[in-house]
Amino acid sequence: MKQFQYTVSDPMGIHARPAGLLVKVTKPLDSTITIQKADGKSAQSTKLMAVMGLAIKAGNTVTVTVEGGNEEDNFRTIQQFFQENL
Amino acid sequence: MLVVNGKSILNGIAIGPLLVYHKADAAVSSATALTPQEEWTRFEDACEKVKEHLADLYEKALEDVGEENAAIFEIHQMMLEDEDYLDAVKDMLETQGTSAEYAASTVGDQFSASFAAMDDAYMQARAADVRDVSHQVVNMLTGRTDGTLLGDRPVILVADDLTPSETIQLDKSKLLGFITRHGSSNSHTAILARTMNIPALVGVDIDESWDGQMAVLDGYHHCAHINPTPDLLSSMEEKRKQDLEDQAALQKLKGLANVTLNGTEVNVYANIGNVGDVGLVVQNDAGGIGLFRSEFIYLEADDYPTEEQQFIIYKRVVQAMAGKKVVFRTLDIGADKQAAYFHLDDEANPAMGYRAIRICLTRKDIFKQQLRAMLRASAFGTVSIMFPMIISVQEVREAKHVLAECREELVSEGEAIGEVELGIMVETPAAVMMADELAEEVSFFSLGTNDLTQYTLAIDRQNSKLDAINDPHHPAVLRMIRHTIEAGHRHNCWVGICGELGADPTLTETFLRMGVDELSVSPASVLPLRRRIRSLDLNQEPETQVPACDPCK
């Protein structure tokens, strides 16, 4: 299991469009990726409405967990995605 | 004639007959003779067809409104692939043995309700998106259609609500405007309407009996006139014609210089408060950002925004402007702009109270965070920083000292920093009187005419009782402005105006004659101001008397 924390800087937070991108990017990956907010609520990265349902805003810090499969590569992919898009 | 009010999405006028639109009845039967597996297959087939249709809409939207706005149709497709949504439908089919349309409708309502209940205006607006896709699947399953929306003559559409898919499918040549009961100015439908340049009112108490009646939709005044009088109709028709001609004429000014007939050129920049407005700055062809109100970052946050959060925002703005000048005003909080986490005391006279630079110079930790973020953003374009509410040379020196400290720290940390031009807001009579000395300290002045008027005339601008005597054209104010411009020029400072007066076309000539170097106005005022500038000839006799020179006024 690998984990990183990320503070969302996109002024709109994780709104519909980046949530959609996140689903697209993580669906082909063979790890289970979970996004957890500081209040404990979490969602799997492949579930669009659940991710949108977290209502993550700019300034929120989330914990991203990568579990199973090729953790090393998938961790890098998802970390890069957060840095570039969120 | 009946006048109804709502919330306007776009400044524009639409005139035409009303068409009340009925959606197919949402009630669906839960009964079915098929097995859950057969119902599931029906559901899956319907989803596939709706997704194909959404893919077509995406292509259409891509052409009509661009990628950013078309993305919603991609999101809609993904909603129909959402595992939780599909699982919930499947579960309902298996455990309750209902029809696929009933399950799709019920699950759609459930998901929609959970978005509607969220404590976030943006996510609340997404409830309509979930409902929209479910409704399309149900229609596909039942073979119902919502009927053709528009007939063969152009109309103003009246509906309970319009979904993004409905809006984009509307034939623009037949749609003059629309009026809905629901919807927010934040909804995708509103955004699409704005991009498609369709006047619209939302939040209107609509009535079925309006069908077929003539109406005038007045986006400027957030209202619609149902069955207007002939007089009103003809005057609004005239206004609409002017409106369209005006817009077309303004568009032609894009790319042209802000230069008078006799060759005097002036910079026209835009005032904005957040990253989202940068698009408007570019769209309206402003030469730069003359005032970025950094306090909005603080006002929208629940706690002090960090250096990193601010840096990302500043960097985005600077990058989006691609080398054009961006003037960041440091935190101007206090008075009428309050953020709870600052714990500012209630004051008897907040306009003259603990605010802006006065807070920054006593709470340097906050000030430094902001200055560091601005300095770091300067590596990505052309950045100027200006300090608000200055009354003395001492304050400017102190602020410059803090800035120098930040710069040294960043350099020793190995951060890249660009050249940063420094200026102050001139918005107090004290700053005007000290303009010569202040100009020695900085590279530019920006006149904040709203506060300068309030302090010069000793008129509280929040007090509506004083509106009658609150004259921003008062010679005292104009003399203050002239004095500031002249003092700035004596010391090689450029001088701009970023208050509301800057956009006042009746003063443009006066300001140009005074020698102003820059006018910074709201993005929507950039092109009208350019037109005004291009119509002036300063070699001719003044069109408007300069009241600053008229002591009797």
In short:
The complex is a heterodimer of chains A (86) and B (553). Chain A has 86 residues and is an alpha+beta fold.
Tell me about this structure.
The complex is a heterodimer of chains A (86) and B (553). Chain A is α+β, with helices and mostly antiparallel strands and 86 residues long. In chain A, 37% of the residues lie in helices and 26% in strands. A four-stranded antiparallel beta sheet of chain A has the order 1-4-2-3. In chain A, strand 2 and strand 3 (42-44) form a beta hairpin. The model of chain A has no long low-confidence stretch (mean pLDDT 87). Chain B has 553 residues and is α/β, with parallel strands linked by helices. Helix content of chain B is 46%, strand content 14%. Chain B has helices at 36-65, 67-79, 83-96, 100-116, 121-142, 164-169, 188-195, 230-251, 278-283, 295-299, 307-320, 357-362, 364-377, 393-412, 429-433, 435-439, 449-457, 475-490, 505-514, 526-535; strands at 2-5, 7-8, 13-20, 155-159, 175-180, 200-202, 214-218, 223-226, 267-272, 289-293, 325-329, 382-387, 420-426, 444-447, 494-497, 518-521. Chain B has an eight-stranded mixed beta sheet. An eight-stranded parallel barrel of chain B has the order 9-10-11-12-13-14-15-16. In chain B, helix 1 (36-65) runs antiparallel to helix 2 (67-79), helix 11 (307-320) packs parallel to helix 13 and helix 17 (449-457) crosses helix 18. In chain B, 44% of the residues are buried. The model of chain B has no long low-confidence stretch (mean pLDDT 88). The chains are: A alpha+beta (86), B alpha/beta (553). At the A-B interface, helix 1 and helix 2 of A face helix 2, helix 3, helix 4, helix 5 and helix 11 of B.
SSE order and pairing:
The complex is a heterodimer of chains A (86) and B (553).
Chain A: E1 2-7, H1 16-26, E2 32-37, E3 42-44, H2 48-53, E4 61-67, H3 71-85
Antiparallel strand pairs in A: 1-4, 2-3, 2-4
Chain B: E1 2-5, E2 7-8, E3 13-20, H1 36-65, H2 67-79, H3 83-96, H4 100-116, H5 121-142, E4 155-159, H6 164-169, E5 175-180, H7 188-195, E6 200-202, E7 214-218, E8 223-226, H8 230-251, E9 267-272, H9 278-283, E10 289-293, H10 295-299, H11 307-320, E11 325-329, H12 357-362, H13 364-377, E12 382-387, H14 393-412, E13 420-426, H15 429-433, H16 435-439, E14 444-447, H17 449-457, H18 475-490, E15 494-497, H19 505-514, E16 518-521, H20 526-535
